[in-house]
Structure formats: structure tokens, C-alpha cells
Amino acid sequence: MSKTIQIASPGQFADLLKSSRIVVTDFYADWCGPCKQIAPIYEQLSAQLSRPNQITFVKVNTDTQKEIASQYAITSLPTFMLFEQGKQVDKIQGADPRKLQAVVKKLVAAAEGPSSGLGSSSSGSGSGSSWRVGDLPKGYGDVTDQVDVKGLELLNADSDFGTVRTLFEGSKPTGLQNGKAGEKTKDWVESDTDEQLMLFMPFQSTLKVHTLQITSLPPTSEDDEAPMRPKTLQFYTNRPHILGFEEADDIPATQAIELSEKDWDSTGTATVSLRFVKFQNVSSLVLFVVDGEGSGEKVRVDRIRIIGETGEKRELGKLEKIGDEQGE
């Protein structure tokens, strides 16, 4: 469900500017083509970064809210305005997704600094770096925000737990927040009939994928029915759709990796370094969790983060298969 608030009156907007530390505002119109083009990216930022009373994403229809549009001198669409503690701190005119993402994340990162008081209770930014340990590989950044969340697919997931979008939230998993894995919120994914999971991740831009970070926080008890951490992983690049389990057995993986106990750090995160030369021009990625590290029947995954570089933006809603026949 979208976390973006549709502004219905000047009073509502004024109240939000007072009650939320950061307010990101999208001034748009229904007839505006560029507004429609960038809307999915704005919604994705909202889904990743919104936090009650701290970071709020809103939309203002300039045709129905002319008083607000006039107050802030909106002369072109789309226009994005960023407010901190009620004061305008930035303005972006036009449908420039990279600039929008950069400005919003810079503001959120500044708000999550040591003096902000937001870090430990945050539901996360796109990087989610506040709870993970270690530095990103030199020269690369968190590109998880390039995942096209509307195209995500996950096979063999137990519906009693989180959805596929849960995997890409920046928020700190409840297993870390509370020191235990059995929370009522169940903000993780578990496999259903056996230990296998198949995840399809389409991207908004072609990516150079350097590293994948997988967080898994199974219970620490000796319960034989407790879910396991992933062990054997297979990656497939540039598939036009998700693979079936039998189909994956017949297709050579771009890379296969086997994790061991030493690969998991104190946050329950394994950093998977990919053969970078094979992941240079990636429009989609399929992750196949083949099995778990024990003798259980289910596998658990809490979060996934993608590290690399963004490339050429692809047309929204269109996934083109790009040849992955690249040299070692």
C-alpha cells in the first residue's frame, strides 16, 4: 500500500509541514505526461523512506489545489519541493529521476545523522546503512532503489509472512530491533512447501551489479522446525520473467555461490561478491535459493540490498532482454 499522502486542502498541507520533520512534495497534474512518467519512482521513494511524523511524501494536484500551487509559485510541472521543519530547503523542476533520488536521499541521510535522534528508530532509507555493518565497496553505492517493485515476483513464499517488497525495505529487521526473531509483524519472507525460493528482480535502469547483501535472522533456538539461512544461491541475469524451479535446473546459472557460517556477520547479513564482469549490463536478476544451511524444511530471508552502479534508464514497464554472453 502506498504511503504517499494526497493533499486535499491547504490546511492539511500546513499541518503536515508542522507535524513531520521532512516533507517531500510532488506538485503535479493529471494531464501532465512527465508527471505520470516519474510517478512510479516517486512512489518507490515514498515506500522506502516514509516514516510516521518524520519523513512524509505528499502529492499536490495543482488543478484542484490552486491555492497551494499559487502560494509556492508553481510555474512548471512536475515540481518537487523538500521541506525540513516547515522550511523549504530544495526545489526540483522537471522529471529528472536521478536528481530527485539524489536530493531526497541526501536530505534523509542528513536527517539521520548522529545529532538528529532519528537513526536508531528509523524505518530506513534506501541504503539502510544505519543498521548494517561494514563499508560499501570503494567506488560503488547502494542501488536497491533501482528495483522496479511493481515487477517483483517471488515463488514458494509462505503467505503468513511478509511480501516480496518486504525484502527491499531499508528498515531495521525486527529480529535485530528486539533481539529475537519471533515478532508478530513477521517482516521477513519464509519459503512454504520446501526450502527453495525463486526471486525475480527487474530494474528501472541497467545496472552494474557488484555485490548482493542478504540478511537472514532465523531463531537461535534448537527448534528443528525453525527456518534456515540460505546456503546455495544461483543467479541468472537478464531474464524477461521469473524462472520456474524446473526451468532453472535446465539453464546454466550466471553464477552459483555456496555460503557458510563464517559468511554471516553480526547483523545476520552475508555479503555476496559477484563475478563483476558477468554483471555489467543487467536489466533483471533472478535469485534462486536452492537450499538452506541445515536440515530444516524452510528458508528465511529478511532483507536484500544491491550494490553497484546505475546505467542507462530503461522505459518504465518494459523489460528488454539484454544478452549476457560476456567474457570472464
TrEMBL record:
The record's GO molecular-function terms, alphabetically, read: protein-disulfide reductase activity
Fetch the InterPro entries from UniProt: Galactose-bd-like_sf (IPR008979), PITH_dom (IPR010400), PITH_dom_sf (IPR037047), Thioredoxin (IPR005746), Thioredoxin-like_sf (IPR036249), Thioredoxin_CS (IPR017937), Thioredoxin_domain (IPR013766)
Q: Where is the PITH domain?
A: 132-326
Chain residue ranges for the region called Disordered: 113-133
Low complexity biased stretches:
113-130
What is the top-level taxon of the source organism? Eukaryota
Question: What are its GO cellular component terms?
Answer: cytoplasm
Q: Which residues form the Thioredoxin domain?
A: 1-109
Q: Does the keyword Lyase apply?
A: no
Q: Which UniProt keywords apply?
A: Disulfide bond
Recorded hits in PANTHER family, A to Z, give: THIOREDOXIN-LIKE PROTEIN 1 (PTHR46115)
Protein name per the record = Thioredoxin
Natural source organism:
Hyphodiscus hymeniophilus
